[in-house]
Design a protein that fits this description.
alpha+beta, Calcium-transporting ATPase, cytoplasmic transduction domain A, Alpha-Beta Plaits, 697 residues, 24 strands
């Protein structure tokens, strides 16, 4: 493919097949993703070949292999355009210098036009071959593309100049302009190819985080280094200090601080000990770990993240449809304008100027920038999001989040940790806080109740040793009773999760437990309000507990809905419209996440919720939500800026070209202007990447 018009044409050809329900073709990566029923690769390849292109089915053993194939294609594409640009520019520059010199010194010998003719012919054959090939493929199928304009423009200028030269006419020749526009456009495409590879580098950077080798433990206890792709589920790995974890797994032995920024976006290491999960690509910082793998080396978290990012980068945003529609009518319209320009100048008696004006119209109005504006920004936006631990499923979600003005949070498990924790201790007798907690935790230790687990966890966290309990009795709906250190200890619980501790019939204190706010929840609320987002909260809990959380978050009761059921949550989101963001994590949020169309799921949530969400935030970082909105807004702003520039450029350039206001060197200036417009759009996307990188927390 030589332009985004090629990609759009292939996509239309695939979408017309009855078994295809959706197709997305990426010009930047040279890949197509197709969904449907009873898909057959031979039929799909035939549809692509029907548009004059070759295709093959990619069946990679891993995401890394798929990315390697894409990178090879991008490298080959960049190399091809570099070759054409070097040939075109190195031959055109002396031709143009000769043209200017001969004109200034009135060299009118027969050798000069023939030198220009031969040099221009070489450039057309070597630098222009792919332009003509692409234009011909489109022509034989009754369509046009951006290369049609370039090919017709170069050919018209060359043929006209040849006729003037052979006929001995006293008219200017434009061999240098004909060859120059091919060289300059090739140079612009070379820059585009390099920039596209740079913009899509986020997938490559992700995959590089997973080490190529892993140290496995053999059955005899010895260790062996093998390629990480060969690691199987259930194997044991040694991860030494300073090394990266090769495959997802669970820690069997050892303790260490692990940097999981690859999936959380947070660079602060977290402690990992036996029983804790670790993910591929994470950096082991301090201790030696023995890890049992929970997947094979080809389907790690890194690979799945890279697959999600690549899919998002090749998807099409709704705003791109406008550009696609304009591009589909643009080339035929420009051909008509060029023809009318030629006829108008001819009728005024200046056929030579009409030729140059028409050629200038063809070149200067090429809508390459229009087709590049959206996909380049989407690639940058989704790639930058993945480096922050934010996974956006498609370009449509990225665009709609950028337009959203309201967000609704589920409370439990989203803004809060989703489990009770000890928040207050009151002493009613001659006991210390530690002794009261030690007795309560000891008698609660056999219980599986969430409140009992919270009390026990708090005691262990404070370093208290638990005593054995005898004659343990669990009282349904009330609490527990047992003998601890020759004392009868009763823990009575009420519906507010407050536990009254009774020792030998005397109340000695109370333990109040509440669901705790996530550490960054308040900061996230403040950030959202600061950027103008209206925040609401949904909860299935009672008014009292919900109101307490709302007050700590700084939310007014008018923005809080309590005692909500899964059905009422979905109905509430539906009533707010499709441009409201819903953030949740639990099974009872899945319907609301799906109903929103802009569901954001925390990674701690169930698989159902994550499948229903448009965005996944690993690491349970609530602060990633305002980051997501800011990133989406910046990406959408970049798309709008680039589209405006592309439209404005063509609207201004076509009249200037048609009225001959660019002079006799109009085709050459047109080639420069077209290349500059493409580079401006690409540069705007790379500027977005730089801004997002500098603002990364």
């Amino acid at each position: 493919m030589t332009c985004t018009g090629c990609a759009a044409g292939i996509q239309r050809a695939l979408e017309t097949r009855p078994e295809v329900t959706a197709a997305s073709v990426s010009f930047a990566s040279g890949t197509a993703e197709i969904e449907g029923d009873n898909l057959k690769s031979d039929a799909l390849i035939a549809a692509v070949e029907g548009r004059g292109f070759s295709a093959e089915l990619i069946e990679p053993d891993s995401q890394a292999d798929a990315q390697s194939d894409i990178e090879k294609q991008q490298v080959a594409n960049e190399k091809t355009w570099r070759y054409r640009a070097i040939v075109g520019m190195s031959l055109w520059a002396p031709l143009e210098l000769l043209h200017w010199t001969s004109t200034a010194n009135h060299w009118h010998g027969t050798w000069m036009p023939w030198t220009m003719f031969l040099g221009s012919m070489v450039i057309i054959l070597f630098a222009g071959f792919e332009f003509y090939k692409s234009a011909w493929r489109a022509a034989v199928r009754g369509t046009t593309n951006m290369d049609t304009l370039i090919s017709i423009g170069a050919t018209t200028a060359f043929v006209y100049s040849t006729i003037v030269m052979l006929g001995g006419l006293d008219l200017p020749i434009y061999f240098a302009e004909a060859s120059g526009l091919l060289g300059i456009v090739s140079l612009g495409h070379w820059f585009e190819a390099r920039a596209s590879a740079n913009a899509s580098s986020s997938v490559r950077e992700l995959l590089r985080m997973q080490p190529e080798t892993a140290e496995i433990i053999e059955t005899d206890g010895s260790t062996k280094i093998i390629p990480s792709a060969e690691v199987q589920n259930g194997w044991k790995l040694v991860v030494r200090p300073g090394g990266r974890i090769a495959v997802d797994g669970v820690v069997l032995e050892g303790e260490s601080a692990v940097d999981q920024s690859i999936v959380t976006g947070e660079s602060i290491p977290v402690d990992r000990r036996p029983g804790d999960l670790v993910v591929a690509g994470s950096m082991n910082t301090t201790g030696r770990l023995i890890v049992e793998t929970t997947c094979d080396g080809r389907h790690t978290t890194v690979s799945r993240i890279a697959q999600l990012v690549q899919k998002a980068q090749t998807s099409r945003a709704p705003i791109q449809r406008l550009a696609d529609q304009v591009s589909s009518y643009f080339v035929p319209t420009v051909l008509l304008i060029a023809l009318l320009t030629l006829l108008s100048w001819w009728l005024t008696g200046d056929f030579a100027k009409g030729i140059i004006a028409a050629v200038t119209v063809l070149i200067i109005s090429c809508p390459c920038a229009l087709g590049l504006a959206t996909p380049m920004a989407v690639m940058v936006g989704t790639g930058s999001a993945s480096q922050r631990g934010i996974l956006i499923r498609n370009a449509e979600s990225l665009e709609r989040i950028g337009r959203a003005t309201q967000i609704v949070f589920d409370k439990t498990g989203t803004l809060t940790v989703g489990r009770p924790v000890l928040t207050e201790t009151k002493l009613l007798a001659n006991y210390t806080e530690e002794s009261l907690l030690q007795l309560a935790a000891s008698v609660e230790s056999p219980s599986e109740h969430p409140i009992a687990k919270a009390i026990v966890s708090e005691a262990i966290a404070r370093g208290l040793s638990l005593s054995s309990v005898s004659n343990f009795v669990a009282i349904p709906g009330r609490g527990v009773r047992g003998e601890v250190d020759e004392k009868t200890v009763v823990v009575d619980r009420d519906h507010h999760a407050t536990s009254r501790v009774v020792v030998d019939g005397i109340s000695v204190g109370t333990l109040t437990l509440n669901d705790r706010l996530r550490d960054d929840a308040v900061v996230a609320m403040q950030s959202l309000k600061r950027i103008g987002i209206k925040v609401s909260m949904l909860s299935g809990d009672k008014r009292s507990s919900t109101q307490d959380i709302a007050e700590r978050l700084g939310l007014g009761l008018e923005n809080v809905i309590f005692e909500a059921t899964p059905e009422s949550k979905a109905a509430t989101i539906r009533s707010l419209g499709r441009d409201v963001i819903m953030v949740g994590d639990g099974l009872n949020d899945a319907a609301a996440l799906a109903q929103s169309g802009l569901g954001v799921a925390l990674a701690s949530g169930t698989n159902v919720a994550m499948e229903a969400a448009a965005v996944v935030i690993p690491g349970d970082r609530v602060c990633a939500v305002p980051e997501l909105i800011q990133l989406s807004r910046m990406t959408l702003r970049t798309i709008k800026q680039s589209l405006f520039f592309a439209f404005f450029y063509n609207a201004l350039a076509i009249p200037l070209a048609a009225f001959g206001m660019l002079g006799e060197s109009g085709p050459l200036w047109a080639a420069f202007a077209m290349g500059a417009s493409d580079i401006t759009v690409v540069g705007n996307a790379l500027w977005l990447k730089a801004k997002l990188s500098s603002s990364k927390p």
